[in-house]
Amino acid sequence: MHSAIDNLGPEHLQTDLWQSTYSLAGEAYVHAIVEWLARHLRAQRVMVARAIDLPVTRVRVVASTQRHAPDSFALAGTPCELVYRGQRLVQTSGLGQTFPQLCDTGSDSFHGYPFLDDQGQCYGHLAMFFADSTTLPDWFDTLLEPITARLGAELLHMEQQTRLEAAERQLALHNRVLRLTTQHTPLKQVLDTLLNGIEIDHPGTLCSIMALDRTGRFLRLLSAPSLPAAYLAAIDGVEIGPEIGSCGAAAYRRQRVIVNDTLQHPYWAASRELALRFELHSCWSQPILSGDRVLGVFAIYHHLPSVAGANDFAMIEHVSDLVCQVLLHHETMEALRLKSEHYQMLLRHGADGTVVLDREGRFLEISEGFLKQICAEGPEAIMATRIWDWSANLEPSDILKILQSHHDQPLIFQTAMRHVDGSLWDAEITATAVEIDGQSLIWASARDITERKKLEAALLREARLDSLTGVANRGNFLQALQKEVTRARRYPQPLSVLMLDLDHFKNVNDQYGHSTGDDVLRTLCRESAPLLRKEDLMGRLGGEEFAIMLPHTGVEEAAEAARRLLARILDMSVQVPEVHDRIHFSCSIGVASLAPEDADGERLLARADKALYQAKAAGRGCVKVL
Known about the structure:
Blueprint: H1 10-21, H2 26-41, E1 45-51, E2 58-64, E3 72-74, H3 79-83, E4 89-91, H4 95-98, E5 109-116, E6 122-130, H5 139-182, H6 187-201, E7 205-212, E8 218-223, H7 229-235, E9 238-239, H8 245-253, E10 257-259, H9 272-277, E11 282-290, E12 293-302, H10 310-338, H11 343-349, E13 353-357, E14 363-366, H12 368-373, H13 380-383, H14 396-405, E15 411-418, E16 424-436, E17 439-448, H15 450-464, H16 474-490, E18 495-502, H17 505-512, H18 514-528, E19 537-542, E20 545-551, H19 555-571, E21 573-576, E22 581-584, E23 587-593, H20 601-617, E24 623-625
Parallel strand pairs: 23-24
Antiparallel strand pairs: 1-2, 1-6, 2-3, 4-5, 5-6, 7-8, 7-12, 8-9, 10-11, 11-12, 13-14, 13-17, 15-16, 16-17, 18-20, 18-23, 19-20, 21-22
């Protein structure tokens, strides 16, 4: 049976698609495409999904026409599993016979399209299910090709944004926990804050932290804000052993223990009834280690059998490292509470570099951690210096400010510190005014945050730049364009946009491979850069589609700039090693300038896109102005 679009034709559908989606981006665009396909193809169900793990076994549903669709599902036994092998899949009839678990869905045919990254790995897919036998016309693949490319780009951007937001939340939680720790907040409150934050950021998880007692044989509960009280009472004081649950085994073996299904795993044989009673069907446990010493265990439970992925392992490692710091700090502060001179134990065992200073900035005590941070061999030479000799921006007057202004709470700030050789490292300083034996002193700890700063900078770059070409990514470009539109409205000045699309780029990929296609995209961006001004901005919107923002530029100047750029592009070439030859390529360019009817930057971009379509229709390799 043929599809519902046979009588509509590609031109009508393309026009309708453009009118339905030209102003949309991100999740709104993905949902609009799903609804548009379902409506025009009369599909039973259309969905877009994103891989959760590698190798791909589960996917997360991003958009679906099915009401009450699950957030995620396992690929095994579905036609979608075959799509993740990187090929388009079409089955025009008998779907329930091939995939028995779909018998009750009423679907008879399936069309699936993969989204492939630069290495050819499938990271998501578009799936269309039909209640009857359905064959799509040959021209539909051509119509759908730019749609799937845009869908894939939007998914990557959404995933990138999600990861950045998750990293920001993780960093905020990390800093909050450290701040509570340095403010001498009770240990349980600190750990409850951490676990509550994890459970909010990872719905469906129930977390616990247990500490190894002084005998090294039993685990005692420290924090578990969401687990049932009766279950906690049953496991508090559990003995560690090679096969005693997830936590007991992790502490005994000093390695991570991942139990995906507690009702099937041998480690849970003695606790199976307990797990069943409280519906705890998976438990991932990570030992909290300080060197070779086991401090305790961090565990994550789920009410359903759950498989851990790479992101879960990274989160577990990060949390266990943070808990290690908190527990070590708590141990040290507990020692200080027991003896008036125990501040020296903090210097010996604290996780960070720690010093005690007098009012003149002189060192009274220096921890081994601080000596390692500044790369000093011993304390003798350091004791003759002042603290501001080791900070790039700490003045003598700052010492008195700490003593006078922060009696009730520590002062936390970031600064650049010096190594012995004069090189700099980034530090987060926690300084507290204390009184010891009637003398006003300063207790200060320095945490090396150099790697954290690099990570923050890398996250910022990842959130703004396209990883393949180094130009602005779609989200960054649209944000910059909207700011420039606002500026152009406030201080009346011209603003233009160029839309570029490489001609016949699919043929390059098909004939020479994706590696050569990537070289073409990189060459285009690299060799176009000298033609742009400092204030201009080039961005990759997806696939082979680019845009260039030209502030302070009218339509005639923009058209001339586009012609210069096209002439330069026509001179570009890329070496193809396999054939010992260079290939040339061309592009079509659409030009539009800000008009009174442009409500925002995306509207201006849409008009430039319309001009691009005109350039394509005019035979490609040319410039058209709207």
